[in-house]
Amino acid sequence: MNAWGFYVATLLIYFGVDLLSGISLNLQFGYAGVVNFGYVVFQAVGAYAAAVVVLGPSGGVASFQQYVFGARLAFPLDLLVAAAAGGLVSLAIGMFSLRRMRRDYQAVVLLIVSLIAIQLVSADVPLFNGANGLTGVGWPLGQLLGISATSSPWIYAAWVLAICAAVFVGVTWLSRSPWGRSLRAMRDNEAAASAMGLNITALRLQVFVLGGAIAGLSGGLLVEYIGAWSPGAWGYAETFVIFTAIFVGGVGNYRGVVIGVLLVPVIFLEIPRFLPAIGYPGLIDSLQWVAIGLAWMLCLLFRPQGILPEKRLRVGRPVGPPETAVAPAEGAI
Amino acid sequence: MSTPLPATATGPDPVLVARDVVVSYGGVHAVDQVSVNISPGGIIGIIGPNGAGKSSFLGALGGQVKRSGGVITLSGQDISSLLPHQRARLGLARTFQTTSEFGRMTVFENLVTAAEGDRGASLKSVVLHPRRTKMREHAAAEHAWEVLRRFEMERTANHYGRELSGGQRRLVEIMRCLMRSPKVLLLDEPMVGVAPHLTHKLVDDLRAIGRDGLGILIVEHALEVVRQLCDQVVVMALGKVIASGSFEEVVQDATVQAAYLS
Asked: Distance from CA of residue B247 to its chain's centroid?
C-alpha cells in the first residue's frame, strides 16, 4: 500500500472515532443539555480497558510496561469491555457530578475530573504505565481473520465505519423516541420537565452512561488501530475539538455532526500538515488550537444553529372525526 | 400562627392539604406557617404584594422550593419529602411565574412530553416494550389534539415554544398540565403577558377545568381575575396569611387594605 492510501485510510479511521465522539456528545449536550467537558476521560478509559484485556498478563515491574488487570480476551469481549468500562466510570463520576447541581457547575466539575484523571494516570505508574503509556496493543478481530490493523487499514476503516453506522442508527432512533423527547424537555427547562413527572437525575445519568459507553467504544477502536495509548493522547483540549465540531455541524442534528466532524477534526486539523513551515518549530501546531477556538466563536456569532440546525418534527392535523383521529406521524411523533 | 382554610365551606374532602408550611431563606421566613386546603373543583386564589411569599409557597407545594416545616398531603398521602417529579406523578401539576415552555420543542411535542411523563418515556420501556411505547405515543397524540382543540390552539401545533407570544406560552403551560390529568393544578400568575381578550377566555377555560373536578390554586396579581374565578381568596403579606374568605370579604378587611390594597 502506498503512503497516500495509508494516510487516507487512517484519516477515515480517525473520522469514525471522532464521529462516535460527536454522536455521544451530541446526545449528551445537544439533546440532554449535559455539558460533558470531561468527555475525553471516558474515551481514555475505554482505550486503557481495551489495551489491558488485549495485551495479556502484565509482566510486573520487571517488564517494560506495567498495568493492572492484564488479560487476553478474544473479540468481541475487548470492545465490550471498553464500552462497559466507559459506561461504568461514567456512572461513578455521574453519581457525584450530575446530582442536584446546576449545569454550569457540572461542566466545571467534569473539566476538573478530566484534569485530575490525567495527572493521576501519569503519576500512578503501576496503573497504566504512567506517562509512557501502553504499547503493543493488537487487534483481536484482525487476529481471528489473520490480518493486522496497520497492514490492512482499509479493512479496519470499514470496520470502524460499520460500527459508526450502527451507533448512528441506534442513537438517532433513541433520540427520536419518547425518551429522546424527555431529554429535550430536560434540556429546555429542567424545572418544568421535573414538574411534568420526568426524573431529571435518572435521565441525566442514563444519557451520561450511554454516552460514556460510546466514548469507551471509540477509545477501544482507536487503541486497537494505533496500538498505543498514553496521557498525551487524551488532553482535555480533545473534548473541545469535538464540541467545536458539533457546534459547527449543528447542535441536536446528527447529520450535522457528521459534517462537523468531517470539517473540524479531520480537514481543519489536517490542512496545517501541508502548510510550509513558518516561524519557530511547533508554531503551526499551536495555531491549530487558536483556529479551533476561532471556529467555535465565529460559529456562535454568525450561525449559532450550525450548518444543519436541529430538525423541527412537524405533525399533520388529524383527519376524520376528532374522537377517533390519530395524528399522522412525520418524524418522531 | 397557622391558618387552616377550607377550600369551600360545604365542599368535598380536600385533595391537597398544606399545614403550617414554612419556607426559610437563610434566617428569613419567606413563608411562615401557611395552611391551605384545596377540594376537587375548588378554586383558591392567593394574592398579596410583591415579596409576600406567594410563589415560594407554590414552590413548596410543588417541591421546587425546600420546605423548612409543615406537612403537605395529596389525596391523604404525605408528599412533604417527595421530589417534584414524584409529586407530579401523584397528580400535582403546576405552571411557573416565568413561562416555562420547552422552547426548542413544538407545541405538540410540549403536550405529548407532558402526557408521557412517567408512563412511556423511560429508556427501559422504549427499548424493551417498543410496541407498548408506540401505542402510548399515539394515545398521547390523540389527547394532545383534543387539548389543542379545546384551547383553539391547533394552528400553533408545529410552532416552537419560543416562537409563541407571552399569552400563548401561558396557554401551553396550562395545556401541558392538563395533559397529565392532574388532581390539583397550581398556577403562578397565569395572566401575566396574556392579552385582555384572551384573559376572559382563559378565565372561562379555568372555570370549566374546575367544573371537571380539578382543584386549582392560583397566585395572581390581577384582582378582577381573582374576583371572577376564585371561590376563596387568601391574602399573604410578609410570608403570613393576613386574611382569607370570599373576594368581597377580604377586600373589606382593614388589615388587607392597609397591607396591600390601599
From this structure: 19
* Whether A178 and B137 lie within 8 Å, measured CB to CB: yes
- Residue A219 inside a domain? The answer is yes
Q: Closest Cα to residue A261, out of A1, A18, A17?
A: A18
- Same domain? For A141 and A257 the reply is no
Question: pTM (2 decimals)?
Answer: 0.90
Which residue in the set B85, B146, B158 is minimally distant from A315, CB to CB?
Answer: B158
**Complete DSSP assignment for A17-66:** HHHHHHHHHIIIIIIT----TTHHHHHHHHHHHHHHHHH-S--GGGSSS-
Residues A161 and A255 in one domain: no
| A88 and A154 share one domain | yes
Measured between CA atoms, the residue of chain A closest to residue B149 is A322
User: Do A55 and A32 belong to one domain?
Assistant: yes
- H helices of chain A, in order, are 3-25, 39-55, 77-97, 103-123, 125-128, 140-145, 153-176, 178-188, 190-195, 200-226, 237-249, 254-261, 269-270, 283-302
The string of pLDDT tens digits covering residues A164-212 is 999 999 999 999 999 999 999 999 999 999 999 999 999 999 999 999 9
**Cell numbers found for residue A65:** 510496561
Q: Minimal Cα–Cα distance from A181 to chain B, Å?
A: 7
Dig out the grid coordinates for A81 from the structure: 469491555
Are the beta carbons of A179 and B126 separated by less than 8 Å? yes
Q: In this complex, do A189 and B88 lie within 8 Å of one another by their Cβ atoms?
A: no
Taking CB atoms and an 8 Å limit, are A192 and B100 in contact across chains?
yes
The chain A residue lying nearest B92, using CA atoms, is A195
Tell me the domains of chain B and their CATH numbers. 16-101+183-261 (3.40.50.300), 102-163 (no CATH)
Examine residue A326 and state whether it is found in any structural domain, yes or no: no
Flag whether A333 is in a domain: no
pLDDT tens-digit series, residues A263-313: 988 887 788 777 787 888 888 888 888 888 888 899 999 999 999 999 988
What range defines the domain where residue A15 resides? 3-235
Same domain? For A178 and A250 the reply is no
Q: Are residues A267 and A227 in the same domain?
A: no
